[in-house]
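The pair is quoted verbatim underneath.

:::
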Amino acid sequence: MSALSLTGLDATRAAAETDLAEVGGEVVSLDRFEVEGRSDQPYGASLAASAQKGSVALIDTPQSVQVIPEALIEDQGARTLADALRNVAGVMPGGYYENWDYYRIRGFDAAFATFVDGLRGGNGMSDELFALEQVEILKGPASSLFGQGPLGGLVNLVSKRPRAKPFLELGYTAGSEAFSEVTIDANRPLLSGERLLGRFTAVFRNKNSFVDQADSQRLHLAPSLSWRISDSTTITVLGKLSEYDITHAMPLPAKGTVLPNPNGPIPLNRFVGEPGTSRGEESSRAFGYELAHRFSDVLTLRQNLRYDHYEQRWTLMFYPGYLGDDGRTLYRYPYNYWQTWHDFAVDTRLEADVRAGGLRHQVAAGIDVFRKDLSGLGQTIDLSDLSAYVPLDLYAPAYGAAPLPELQPPYSVAEDGRTAGFYLHDHVTLPANVTATVGGRYDFTKQDGVKQEAFTPRAGVTWRFRPDASLYATYSESFDPQGTRMTTASGTPVDPERGRNWEAGLKTTAADGRLTATAAVYQLTRQNVATADPLHPGSYTLAGEQRSRGFEFDGRFAVTPSWDLVLAYAYTDAVITADNTLPVGDRTQNVPRHSGSVWSNYTFRRGALEGFGVGIGARCYSDQAGDLPNTFTLPAYALAELALSYAAGPVRVQVNVTNLFDRTYYAGAYNALYVLPGQPRTIRAGVTWSF
């Protein structure tokens, strides 16, 4: 069996980097290559190197790892990370604010653990999907490789990189809610011999929200350079500049949306801010590089580094404070917030592929360092003074009728975080087609002067019982510091959360690699959850525990060279198992017990309809708990989508319709005042010119 890794292909080109192939169960290096046209497995993937810190084939990895390639993102017309993540079982995108990347993995929040090119970098701000080659999802704890993070898993975003073949793509898309978007993707060799390559991607997007008064504008620029210094040394430099201006569409109360209200349903397009306010400005700058030096056929040094600078400026955001007894008057508090933070991350590792004692060892050993400095100013009213809240009639709003209260003097916010971790992992090939993965990581963290340490192990075994199928079982742990604001009765910050994961599964790459699938069962236990101390008000104890059990199936099938199919299903039972204040048995928020999606794309390759493509999809979710403790639920829903395309020569035209039947649904909730209505039917049409 021989299967090339052709992840992230689009309709006109394939990756032109040094790639890997799986030959006889081993992963070997391939020379640079070019492929014209669409791959026979455009949605498939055999590797997720950035997210795994190595080149072990996915079928031999004792963990559920999924890859969303560029081809699938393009076919679905996805614009947000939530759009892409809907293709993965056990990942529930959506939250209680628009324009933020909220998602949960296997029942637990994971949005603030997003990685970019293998380095910590997520902060909840919306990432630009057009600038990505693929999205990688690791399910279950990843602390043994990446350090502190949530128990459910992590998402790694892989930026577009220079390619050997020159191309230029220009795109324009327009659609519902005054949507307008211009995209540029330009790539070319800058020196002969493909030693220096350059790429530049750009997006300008303007759109309104379905909520009155709300809109957003984004400018995103991403230049990159790849320099092959020698036959054994390469460096890729990645940059980013992003400006994002938003008038926020705030959530609505549960009463009048998912709960009855004597005044009737609240219009879902209701704006609860004040016209001309509720404005957010976000900007980010990033610079980094990926360096690889091959000492020999068995030893390679890699170093990834990135510096990020973020700024947020929120002006007169009107947040829900409380709902009046009449059920129609929402009392809001205005809020100003300005913050700046700097992130610095560097990961340095050695990768060795050696034979010792008659066994093959694929070893990764390294150290990574992360530093975060944040400073900010906040300003709001005296929240204890109910008369200072600004009323708004949700059914007959009279904006500007109530005078704005005097805001309190600004207060300052500062955070200083440091993390250093040492990790060692060995993937050992044993007799009888068995491989074992063992390793661990030791972390030192320091936040606002408070030091904490943790060791997180990982052990797993994989049996490839046939060349295209394997069984695996694994155990792994996580840790996640809870900050310095929650303290025990003695005044010391609470210890980090700890997590344990038991998992087993089946993987296959059958039908000559055209079918890739993973089925997994797991149990996650989240421990050391901080809960209110009943004996010492204002203090916390670590009496909380939560558990998630489930089954997942992810499948990609290139049925024919023209027909691609993506399937996902998850059963997730995530509940409170111990707590001082929350009822045992309550479900974790925004997590459906049953969820699933299907996407089918067919492209006509001959005959009168040659060049036409049709994509249809659906996603379904059972009801979800809207808050903790559970007092209301978000109803179950099912959504359909449609894509139509036509490609002729250098031109491709595409129409995408989401929420095809215009269903009413709710994307997420935080509490009884924060329920976010879902996006109604959206139609977008675009054209792309390729040169």
User: Anything to note?
Assistant: Residues 70-76 form the longest helix (7 residues). The CA atoms of residues 231 and 429 lie 29 Å apart. The chain has one domain: 2-690. The chain has a mean pLDDT of 90.
